[in-house]
Amino acid sequence: MEIPKQITTALMNETLRDDELRAILSKLESDKDKERFGLVCKRWLHLQSTDRKKLCVRAGPAMLKKMALRFSRVLELDLSHSVNRGFYPGITDSDLGVIAKGFSGLRVLNLQDSPVQYPKLMDGSPNTATIRQCLAAMIIDLKVELSDLNSNSLKMGVSFKNISPHPRTISRDLYLPNVFFPNEVGFDPFDPNIVLVGGNSEGITDVGMISVANGLSGLQALDASHCKNKKLTEKGLAVIAKGCCNLRTLHLAGCRFISDGLLQNLSNSCPKLEELGLQGCIKITDSGLTSLVTGCRRIKYLDVSKCGNIGDTGVSSVSNICSSHLRTLKLLDCYKVGNESILTLSKSCKNLETLVIGGCRDISDGPLTLLVNSCHESLKCLRMDWCLNISDSALSCIFSQCRNLEALDIGCCEEVTDSPFQVFGSGDFESSLKVLRVINCPKITLVGISMLLRSCNKLEYLDLRSCPHITKVGCDEAGLQFPESCKVKFMESLVELDGQADAFF
Fold first, then answer.
1. Helical H runs in 103-170?
2. Does residue 150 sit in the same domain as residue 70?
3. Under a CB-based contact definition with an 8 Å cutoff, are residues 429 and 423 in contact?
4. 133 belongs to a structural domain
């Protein structure tokens, strides 16, 4: 009788090496499949954890230490606050200390603290359902008069009865994890005496930034926008510039303490800088921009919106030195910027893709036409609302030359009429336009919109608010047919938020 040979079965874990299992993991496309991969056994969980490159977390120092041990190869860490992602007490220096020690290979760090903004209903009243969602687990900085604290106008389940009603202003942080506002409550989130902010990054100081600079020398991107703590100063960010010489992206929107000194430090230490966001940094001047581009000559993206001290000198310096690299330039409400800036851009920056000049009221048709002729192949997004000197001449050039234009804002350009839209009337070409804002353009009528629709089949968003000759009823009676996927606004509140359009600008 023949004795059968013994059959040996090799287990998968004994056969496959780590690199082979990682190769299998890399083939999985969905995050759910990757999570299932980690549920097989501890070894596979370790491989799945160490393969993760990005984390979006809400955690304190203790949990961050555990995460650093488990996710040892993370390159991007997102601790940003938003309406939907807020936590108490927010990011602190202790957190940054743990991050600097535990995530030494980090390349991208997001500490953005976005202020909460609330949409209104069509009738202008607050949307209480949205307010209730937004305020859950958020910080409210209440600046109110003590004499009003016991009034019925503020009902939040918080008692102020023990506070003597002296008429002076206070500032108090309250953590409200389960706030509920029924419709009958007389709470007005738009009251100028009440300031709502998302999250609370007031724990970040210069100490935390110094920890980041010392521990994350390979950092390439940092977003510390809207960190309002007075203990976070230019000194801490100067250390970041010196310690993180490989910085390519830096966003500091709303950090009003920043001055030209930081731009000089960036120029001296960060020659690879490509993207810089300084929206609302009101101390920045032309001198700072000139110093910046002396060393940072590869700037592709620059946002100095609402920096009232920026004028033609600074913009011209950026245009001349970064001419071959500059793709996005945002100058919203930089009222000192005029025709000289536009002329310099037209001569130097042939590859400009996004230009925001809304609120720059001194810009006129001639220089803008030269810019359009220069950048007509590359220009994709143009915002020029409240440019009161812009008329049909410039807009006709934009429509006829910029065939790749995807987003345009001509709100409050009161001299614009239906005439430029004749370019679309023949239907000879298909426009790439996806977003168009014509808010408060009193000379544009249904005739112009009807011509627009003949060639703009890709429209996704059309804002027609406050145009007296254009109404929904009028469009229906005229038989105008908008693209099926197009969102059209006629009567909503002008303060209503809409990220769909804002994403382009």
1. 128-135
2. no
3. no
4. yes
Strands (E), 3-160: 54-56, 76-78, 108-110, 138-145
Res 457: pLDDT: 93
Question: For residue 345, what are the CA distances in angstroms to 186, 316, 350?
Answer: 51, 7, 8
Residues 134 and 105 in one domain: no
Q: CB neighbours of 195 closer than 8 A, spacing ≥ 6? A: 141, 142, 143
Asked whether residue 99 falls in the same domain as residue 137, the answer is no
Q: Token pair for residue 95?
A: 């957190």
How much is the pLDDT for 2? 60
Does the bond joining 89 to the residue before it have cis omega, within 30 degrees of 0?
yes
Look up the domain containing 421 and give its range. 402-505
* Cβ atoms < 10 Å from Cβ of 358: 24
CB 254 within 8 A of CB 225: yes
Q: How many domains does the chain have?
A: 3
Asked if residue 220 is part of any domain, the answer here is no
Q: What is the pLDDT of residue 260?
A: 98
Residue 488 DSSP SS3:
strand
How confident is the model at residue 140, as a pLDDT? 32
SS (H, E, C) 331-354: CCCCCECCHHHHHHHHHHCCCCCE
State residue 430's pLDDT score: 86
Last residue of a domain, one of 197, 218, 251: 197
Q: Which residues of the chain have pLDDT under 70?
A: 1-10, 82-89, 114-202, 427, 492-498
At residue 15, the pLDDT reads 76
The closest alpha carbon to 477, from 485, 489, 469, belongs to 469
Question: Domain containing 423 — which CATH number?
Answer: 3.80.10.10
